[in-house]
Prior knowledge:
globular; two-stranded antiparallel sheet; mainly alpha
Amino acid sequence: MASSGNSGTTGSTLLQPFSEAINLSVDQVNFVVCQLVALLASVWFRLYLHPSQTSSYVRHAVATLLGLYLALFCFGWYALHFLLQSGICYYIMIIVGAGHMHKFCFVIAFGYLTLCQVSRVYLFDYGLYSADFTGPMMIITQKITSLAFELHDGMARKEEHLTPTQKSLAIRTMPSLLEYLSYNCNFMGILAGPLYTYKDYIAFIEGKTLHVKRSVVNGKIDDRCEHAEPSPVPAVLCKLLVCGISLTFHLTITKMFPVAYNIDETFVNTANFASRVFYLYFSLMAARPKYYFAWSLADAINNAAGFGFNGYDVNGSERWDLISNLNIVNIESATSFKMFIDNWNIQTALWFKRVCYDRCRYYPTIATFIISAMWHGVYPGYYMTFLTAIPITLAARAIRNNTRIYFIKTKSVKLFYDFITWIATMIAISYTVVPFVLLSVEPSLKFYRSWYYCLHIVPLLIMLVLPIKSRRKESEQNHSKLKRLEVENTSTSNNYAALNNNLDQIPRPS
């Protein structure tokens, strides 16, 4: 592997001539090529290291070694940070124990990630969009913290104190070092994820996923279903098609709508309000396909290895969306801020919910957005985006809770309501994420000033006027109702059993 001679390149320079020919950075070319290699390796892994023919130990070892090689090719010796961060946190898990490992691992994994982000941004290449070694570390941080919380739930908490989701994900035995490294650094997910739970990954490696999911139809168990081992080929081809379309869009249309043009002085001073709104929407929509490309390719790689099968739908069709990271149709047609967030970077949103929102006692929405900003990096634009999202999210929730009931009585009225909320959502999302793209403080403030901070002020006024129902309280109420129903059902079953016992003791006529 050729070492880097370019200060802007962290990985191999083997593909430097090719990258110059197509006018892309060598880091970006390395990333795409390594992902394509991972795709081919996934097919080989599924066919020749099938769990029915290969031990779990071999599958773990091969997945880990391939992952570390791809990391070295892409990021050079910076890839050692992946092992160092993982190793430190594994040691912490062992010496601290299940009672407190989740707290220590959260702080240490996040702290290590933040130090690396600070060094890369402020010491090396501020503002460059080339591939960087902190990207995979973001995914590894998710995996480390998820595993720590799941071990804490399974080994240190009473089952009656866990939510249904926490019960299903709880882990009751400490993983071996090989299993742990395989989970964090396997070749299918080391470069671009996605995040998945430890239980799902181990079930895939051990070949248990199919046994669990084969009889799942539309999320429910159906013992009548008998299916052969599902083939991921149709799902992989479909996702590769999405990759091709997204990449083409990114290389052509995206360049025609630069986000920075939103703060161009001539454009701001001469364009009318409608033109500025349309350009804002189209420029931010054009910025999304690069994420569609990366996440769809990552999903295809895992599917090609046989990972991601999620049972069957009501029509008996295979579902390969267990670890999918996005739903493009729902993103582009979102009629609420929450609907957009729930379908964008899905596995990360679930991670925030499991490690922060569901466990934070006070102001979980605010805490979740702050943690999200910290996880994404140290660019000021990230913090400006997520702090802006807090009042917009709360205001959107207040509007929806207080007004939607009046607009769902007829189909035509609901259609009108959905259209208006779609427009509002797209404008609000675009307004919110401009700093995320611009990164720096001054350009971001320049944009918000040109809009007179309208989507900062209006949400605050809405929050003062309309009551906001806490989702946390609503969730707790639903959980309490579920618990009460379980107790009532248990009591009824016990009474019925006691009645049967009494009846059995009555002498029968001979």
